[in-house]
């Protein structure tokens, strides 16, 4: 994803669920877009799709339109973030709904264990991950961008009071299959690097023993 789109998505990610709905309503008003084509409300599903639609519809004016809407919903504090994007930034296309799935190791896969074909790393270490993960906000943001969760689920989990409850709810989204688990694992490797390395070392000791 280009820096141009990343900034837009990052900005929309700071809006609450209610603010995002207000953003969509204001975006549909003719005076907001100065006579340019409007994006239909039914097209505005998840945040990443909204960014894609805005870029396709308004091109380099997407930043200008976003700033105008943010001012109207009283979120001028987010305008500064977008000011870093020059009006001449190149806009690249993003395939909506794309899941950048990767092939990732199962627990113990490198050690010829019987578990390697049966149990995914995130399943095997579920209790440890629920108990020890701390960087849940960034993990949720990446799960949203990768379309493992949608806006409503993102908002629902974000409002939960404890980290453990948030992680338990994240795990309910892993029932969709190994593709989601692979993406989740890749995110964990970035956001909880030392925790994942510690769990992998324990696997190594277990299977070496």
Automatic annotation (TrEMBL):
Q: Name one Pfam family in it.
A: PYRIN
Per the record, the domain of life is: Eukaryota
Q: Where in the cell is it found?
A: Cytoplasm, Cytosol
Q: Which GO terms describe its cellular component?
A: cytosol
* Predominant location category: cytoplasm
Per the record's keyword annotation, is Cytoplasm included, yes or no?
A: yes
The name this protein goes by in its record? PYD and CARD domain containing
Q: Which organism is it from?
A: Seriola dumerili
């Amino acid at each position: 994803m280009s820096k141009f789109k990343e900034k837009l998505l990052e900005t929309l990610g700071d809006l609450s669920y209610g603010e995002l709905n207000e953003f969509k309503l204001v975006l549909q008003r003719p005076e907001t877009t100065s006579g340019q084509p409007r994006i239909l409300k039914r097209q505005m599903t998840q945040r990443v799709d909204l960014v894609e639609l805005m870029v396709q519809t308004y091109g380099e004016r997407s930043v200008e339109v976003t700033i105008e809407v943010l001012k109207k919903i009283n979120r001028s504090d987010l305008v500064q973030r977008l000011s870093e994007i020059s009006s001449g930034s190149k806009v690249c296309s993003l395939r909506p709904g794309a899941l950048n799935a990767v092939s990732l190791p199962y627990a113990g896969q490198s050690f010829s264990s019987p578990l390697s074909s049966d149990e995914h790393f995130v399943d095997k270490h579920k209790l440890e991950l629920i108990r020890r993960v701390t960087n849940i906000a960034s993990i949720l943001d990446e799960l949203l961008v990768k379309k493992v969760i949608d806006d409503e689920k993102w908002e629902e989990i974000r409002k939960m009071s404890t980290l453990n409850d948030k992680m338990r709810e994240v795990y309910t989204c892993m029932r969709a299959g190994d593709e989601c688990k692979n993406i989740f694992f890749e995110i964990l490797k970035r956001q909880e690097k030392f925790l994942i390395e510690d769990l992998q070392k324990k696997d190594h000791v277990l299977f070496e023993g």
